[in-house]
Design a protein that fits this description.
mainly alpha; 24 helices; single chain
């Protein structure tokens, strides 16, 4: 079905389709764009294993410490939909290089933050300026390759977005243990400067046409309000006892009302901040929905696992990161093969492999116990490289299929907005449910524990033989119960993640095969 109205993105640069790069320029361009993307995505997860250290330094709780993650993700998600309008106003290349420069400056400020409030503020700033980087890196990379090699281009791009969230905890853990947590932000500076210089030298003569269009200030304001209110609700819900708090109820109403008004406004706006007409394309909405929900589940697990390992399994930041690092091995080996051959296979089949494999990985983790050795904990991370290789590339190809070149920045921006928002919400939801389920399991485990219980008396006698007083023995017993409760809670979430991934297979098959996408959606690309 063709779109009923012409949007700003469709008229931004009609016919803009520069020739592909070749030789060393193509290699350098791929490296520069990939490094910028890697740096951006890395910052969404590098702080995961550093949360205990950051929280300890600033005297806040670990749950409050997760605001360092969610503040970046939410502000990043809010700014991503601006990519289409900003690209038309400033041009792809200028906007991309400026975004990297501001990101480097914000990274420096994060490392220098004097208190937790300022760190969260600088993370918000960092997320805002990073918004255009990911969708524009996709757009620039796709225009650098011949159309018949677009799968290879997406494969190179996705390798950075897949490996970075897993490399983040490993790198962040090593830096935190070996140096100090501010260096997780300082490392962006040399990488960013290289990406700026290389990108500008290679792409400055391939700048996209610009035109002045009015910005949708009402739509932008509503977007900030509903996303921000919802994230604040999720971050503070547990501490304020959810809907027993007037503040949480007010936030929920603000998020709901502003979201409804946002949808109504964007549909009727001539130059919307978010081009909702893209959702008329079946492959766009089904691909975006499955990608975003899958990423929310994945990212929730990426945050949960190192927290559990450090707080209740005795792992350092470095070792918690190392346990997650092997995921990159199979992902790096398989992703180029997927990108090279995906035009030969139904994209829905490849996405099905991803979600089925994710389900297996999460099921394996749901079998963990407190006696699990390092190999048992690491094996699912090794296997996880398989679904990661099949996840981003086919789904992004499905989302962008049938779109003319001038609409790709807006489509990439909108799909990434939904994905990043889902990742931020996944972090808050998983950490909240983890603590809630742990409290429930703790209550169930202590039901049979009392001073008249033979196992308790036997344990206290053993503690006494070791020189522990009864009260200290009971405190030690409570820590053991707490460890079991959080392990069982994590297992519940891992198992639920497996079930959700299996359910997402059905969502993928709502899409049409790629070959039929153009005819189904109006033939824009054919």
């Amino acid at each position: 079905m063709a779109d009923a109205s012409v949007t700003a993105d469709e008229t931004a640069a009609p016919g803009f389709d520069p020739p592909p790069l070749t030789g060393g320029r193509l290699v350098l361009g791929t490296v520069a764009l990939s490094l910028a993307t890697f740096m951006n995505v890395l910052d969404s997860s590098i702080a995961n294993v550093s949360i205990p250290a950051i929280a300890g330094d600033f005297g806040v709780s670990p749950s409050q410490g997760t605001w360092v993650i969610t503040s970046f993700a939410v502000s990043n998600a809010i700014s991503v939909p601006l990519t289409g309008w900003l690209t038309q106003r400033f041009g792809m290349v200028r906007l991309f290089t400026l975004s990297i420069l501001l990101f480097v400056i914000a990274s420096l400020l994060c490392g220098m933050a004097p208190n937790f409030t300022m760190l969260v503020f600088f993370r918000v700033l960092q997320g805002l300026v990073a918004g255009p980087m990911i969708p524009l890196s996709q757009s620039l990379l796709l225009q650098s390759y011949p159309k018949e090699k677009s799968g290879t281009a997406l494969a190179f791009w996705s390798m950075t977005t897949l490996v970075a969230p897993v490399m983040g905890p490993m790198l962040g853990g090593w830096i935190t243990d070996s140096y100090s947590w501010p260096w997780i932000f300082y490392i962006n500076i040399p990488v960013g400067l290289f990406a700026i210089v290389a990108t500008w030298l290679l792409y400055k003569k391939r700048e996209s046409p610009t035109r002045k269009l009015p910005i949708d200030t009402v739509g932008l304001a509503l977007l900030i309000i509903w996303v921000g209110a919802l994230q604040i609700l999720l971050d503070n819900g547990k501490e304020l006892d959810w809907f027993a708090s007037i503040w949480i109820i007010v936030l929920a109403l603000i998020a709901l009302v502003s979201f409804v008004f946002f949808m109504i406004w964007e549909i009727s706006e001539a130059h919307p901040i978010v081009d909702l007409s893209l959702f008329r394309r079946r492959n766009f909405w089904s691909g975006t929905l499955s990608l975003s929900l899958g990423y929310g589940i994945f990212f929730g697990n990426v945050v949960l696992l190192p927290l559990w390992l450090q707080q209740f399994m005795g792992y350092t930041s470095t070792w918690a990161g190392l346990l997650m690092a092997p995921v990159g091995i199979l992902a790096i080996l398989i992703t180029p093969f997927v990108g090279k051959n995906m035009h030969k296979v139904d994209l829905r089949i490849l996405a099905t492999v991803a979600f089925a494999s994710f389900a297996v990985v999460f099921w394996m983790r749901s079998q963990f116990n407190v006696q699990a050795d390092m190999w048992t904990l690491m094996l699912p991370s090794i296997v996880q490289g398989i679904p990661m290789a099949f996840f981003f590339v086919p789904l992004m190809a499905l989302i962008l299929s049938g779109l003319p070149p001038e609409r790709i920045p807006a489509a990439a921006g909108l799909s990434n907005f939904v994905r990043i928002t889902a990742g931020a919400f996944g972090t808050s939801i998983y950490t909240t449910l983890w603590e809630d389920r742990a409290a429930l399991h703790h209550a169930e485990l202590v039901e049979s524990i009392h001073m008249g219980s033979p196992p308790v008396l036997d344990a206290l006698r053993q503690f006494a033989d070791l020189g522990l007083q009864p009260m200290r023995g009971l405190a030690y017993l409570d820590r053991m119960i707490n460890q079991q409760a959080y392990m069982l809670s994590a297992n519940d979430l891992f198992l639920a993640s497996a079930a959700l991934c299996l359910g997402l297979i059905g969502v993928v098959w709502l899409a049409r095969p790629e070959g039929a996408a153009g005819r189904a959606d109006g033939g824009g690309a054919h």
